[in-house]
Description:
Layout: E1 6-10, E2 13-16, E3 23-24, E4 30-32, E5 35-36, E6 39-48, E7 54-56, E8 59-62, E9 68-74, E10 77-82, E11 91-93, H1 94-97, E12 103-107
Antiparallel strand pairs: 1-2, 1-6, 3-4, 4-5, 6-7, 8-9, 8-12, 9-10, 10-11
Amino acid sequence: MREIKFRIFENGIMKNAGDRPFWISPFGFPVYNEVKLDAVVMQYTGLKDKNGKDIYEGDIVKNGRGTILEVYFDGGCFLGKGFDALSKNHVDDCLNIFSNWSEVIGNIYENPELISS
Length: 117
């Protein structure tokens, strides 16, 4: 069973969610002390990159083939979506992309230039 943890991107700053207790409303947004947060919550995949760094949804990883992928959660699984010409319409499952030879190179909130065309 994987470790359950989250991080939050709030007001331009990436934070460990463990520093701030919150809950997700029935409408899907994060709430802290009954106040809606203007934040994005990202879930830990339970996987680490080749440098031992935790991989979260919203991260941008480069796999051993040099392909850049965005990590996202859909249908009960973490997936990676490609952005270059060869992988633009390609989706990898987590076992294929997040092996010991992948590396987190940024995230979609702090480094959007990594995935822009």
